[in-house]
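REVIEWER CHECKLIST
Item 1: Sequence provided? yes
Item 2: Single chain? yes
Item 3: Sequence as submitted:
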Amino acid sequence: MKKHYCIQSFRAKSVLMRCMKKIPLAMRCTLFMLFCLVGMTFANEGYAQKTMVNIALENKTVDEVLTELEQGTEFVFFYNNKQIDVKRRVSVRANNKTIFKVLDEVFKGTNVDYKVLDRNIILYDKAVGTEGVQAAMQSITVKGTVTDASGEPVIGASILVKGTSNGVITDIDGNFTLSDVAPAATLLVSYVGYKTQEVRVGGKTSFNIVLAEDAEVLDEVVVVGYGVQKKQSLTGAVTAITSENIQTTKSENLINNIQGKMPGLMIRQKTGEPGTFDNMISIRGGGEPLIVIDGVTREYEEFAQLNSEDIENISILKDASAAIYGMNSANGVIIVTTKQGASEKTRISYSGLFGIKHATGMEETVDAYTFRLMENEMSRNGKKAEVYSQDILDKYKRGEDGYQDWDWIDMYMNKQAFATNHTLSIRGGNEKVKYFVSAGYNRDNGLLKNNVQYYERFTFRSNVTAELAKGLTMNVKVAGRWNQTQRPREDFMWTFKTLLVNDRGVGPYAMGSANHYSDIAPESKNPAALVDPNVDGYRRNRGVNYSADFDLTWKVPFVEGLSLGIVGSFNGNNRNNSELQKSYQLYDYFTDQPTKVYGENRYQNTMGIFQKLYGRAQANYANSFGKHNISATGVVEVSGSRYDELFGRRLYDGYFTNDILNQADASTATNSGYRNETRLAAYLVRANYDYAGKYLLELVGRYDGSYRYAPGHRWAFFPSVSAGWRISEERFIKEGLPFVSNLKLRASYGKSGYDAGNPFQYVAAYTQGETNMEKGYVLDGNKLTMGMVAPGVVLDNLSWVVTKTANIGVDFDLWNGKLFGTVEVYRRVNDGLLASRIMDIPNTFGASFPQENINSEENTGFEIELGTRGKIGKDFSYNISANYSYTRFKFLDIEHNPYQSSMDRFLNGYDHRTIGGMWNHSGGGMWIQKTDGQFQNISEFERAPLYGGSNGNSMMLPGAFRIVDRNGDGVIGYDDQLPESRRAGANPPYQFGLNLGFTYKSFDLNILFQGAAGYVIGYANDDVFGYGSKTNPTLMKKYMNRWHTANITDDPYNPATQWVSGKFPALRRDFVGTQDNGNSWGVGAIPFWNPNATYLRLKSLELGYTLPKNLTRKVGISDLRVFVNGFNLLTFCNSLLKDADPEREERDWGASLAYPLMKSYNIGLNINF
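Item 4: Structure as written out by the authors:
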């Protein structure tokens, strides 16, 4: 008995009430609000009565007519093919007629009648009746086994009756039994890592189902701008990463979790401080990329703090494919798609992690006695009297009372800190309603003691999709985050500096006292007080982020392939940053006498409110005409944002009560505030064409408008074109090179840009004077009087910065994935960068020139990704990939003063080179003096060029670096510098990663190696680092490996003195008469003080084990996986950076005061119920 079955499942009762019965109680309230929001309800009248049919078929079989009716409506036909002649040919035409009229016409002149039961229609012979057919419609019980391609059982696979919540999960042997199944039903079979299958029951009761792995699916889709595309039809440079690959690295910062995993995405982790999300991140060496989360542009910090467990996938658009976002997409686009519901049995998942962290590297200082020995040595090397007498040295050596050593870092920083992370999610649904709800918690503690430093956040995300009617789908996404960061009152670098430079020979409390904080040189600060929030105060930053997105999509029934949609989004954040400072008395360490009051009693509060509205209307069309496939997207979007900030400060007298402004002294109040608003709009069209999936073409045009510019310059057009050729689809490849699974050549060119510059610069208007900007008038000769300031030079030609991007790429896949990869070559030019004209004007001119679009720059480079995947036997599988990215920066046209000579151009020019002028280490490199070893003795200076200016070589000592006299004038100076391609403070131009993934039975192992090259660490050896550290009473331990006299009493300037060689030059307090201060933060840098920062790091390692199902099922658990994980585990780098970290930022003055990067060891588990 053959039957017609349809996959639709709504009935004529209220759609809302039917859906509410099929989902958990927790979701019913959500759906009720959603339906109220759109104000849509459905009448309870019969579906057959209100459904109008449009059909036109000539000379078709009854079977074909019934199939067409099922595809165009929600009807399901039941019949006995022994009674109904479905091979009979008929012609039928109906325009807006009921199903009754159509069936009457189809079976006119036959003995066939029908019975309509809502959406089910029974066809029967009038002489026989409906009993046999109706009996066949009763529910049945189905059984089966689910296996993978190798025949191994898939344990925990979801078996769900499509359109219902009726489902089960396979057991340890991959078997399942599911009752109450309609013979006409369709089963949805799914499991993580496998392609979801739809299996029609067709009256059968036994099934053997084989799931295919995702890696074997050719029609994999990738998220691109305003939609998705099949990976095989992409013509742009797009790289994607899935949730599983993101989560193999564990940290609270999402950017850390994707570092080294995607070619072209260049990242440098600047610090490991809790609550600081300031990674350097770029796509191909550009500026900060545009962030798009669930189809809406978001803030950078929102991206960094996303819960990795909530992410489905991330795509990066690297070439002209980013032009579809037009405005502010010049630096590429990062697209994040969060998890959504699925048509599967409700699954509750928990992921938990506990971690221990410690610094990857930490500089250490010498003890108080050793420092005083070295201080005397510094004095002798500088031809000065020794500072400490032998009596003082002996007291510190013996550790007498008052002459002990105090290790500040050990006393006030923990060796390790703890972190924890928890996520609970619910995911499931049916054909009509799908839902995903997630809640997460994260806590990351800092190294400073007294719990003064931590980061904490709670996250929530809810994605609900509901089919309101046939072809009409609504999606509502609600997300939020609460986070709090607490730090010492000062920025960490200042507290850390105190711990580094404080004299270790002076204790935290005055001698004979347990609570009198001592006044410690050189900063007159006390670390015991600084790390105690009850004494010195604190900074506490609280934030609340929220977003609500709504989209409605309608598949137009009368135009095949056409869908219309609208998107609305409201998101924002509230920031509450408070700072409390308390004053306290400091005392002389030896006498216990008061010396000064440190700080003041004050409280200040900064509150910021950001809100953004976004709206979009979108039309999509896709259709095929033989071998011709076309698709098009049209979008209109508008957005507006507003940011308000209010600052207040008050002093308080007497005693502190609460950190509330109005509980301090009102007479000392100061306040300020401002507001910023934006308005943006755009129109865009994208058209795609391919012939037989072989020849690919994409055209994009976008028209953007910004509020910043004069009316004649507000709008800009950003076009792009890309094409591809799937060579593997050609016959000569298929027949001649059958091992080539996929080979595609791509090319693209396009324009994008960003709106830069001060808004309303074109308006010739007065501005309000501001004291801190020194705007006002001097009327009495010495006093600034505030008022309105007249406009300066006003121009209305400021416009967009335009980026032109060209890219050529090759994608290949050989031997069905045994070898796959991508190669990209690109060039990106930024035209119209902002600068002000440089012109000779009289001092009485009284105004400055405005910004104009006059500069330009270029990035070129290439990327390579290679990989292999496969299986060895039934139990072992592997997935290995490596990526390498290189980018090169170059100035093109830069506004400058006229060059006076070729030497002037060489030393100070920028045009068409990778590095800025000698006095400005910007661009892609720095100026540096080359060296040729170290001087071995004093006599060598007699024949050497002059190093010390008017001092000649009289202050030079053995161990100093022999600088190459490049111009041969006998004097070492600035003119001996040469440009160097590496630079300090940069996002490295060479970056690479190696991803290794293995599974064996129930074990899984993921390893990530990540590295970078092409940059230096520019530590300033004359600052807190101790080598020539001016007046700071400290010295790094590493500088003990130095050049020094064999006997401590020897004269360092006597040619007969014997020297002991070391890695570092002789210690000094200053560099008068020498060239030893060769760091990148001044002119005259030398390679030794700017060490090559190339590194290779074992970024993450995770080993997991999934417990046997027959054990976990006994306690109601579907899957239970335990894992151990490590982050920043091992680093191979220059020995000069052994106690630091080559990736950590140098921070202000190159003093290495950034919070250290952290190495973590984690243990956790993943549970599915």
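Item 5: Key structural point noted by reviewer: The longest strand covers residues 602-625.
Item 6: Recommendation: ____
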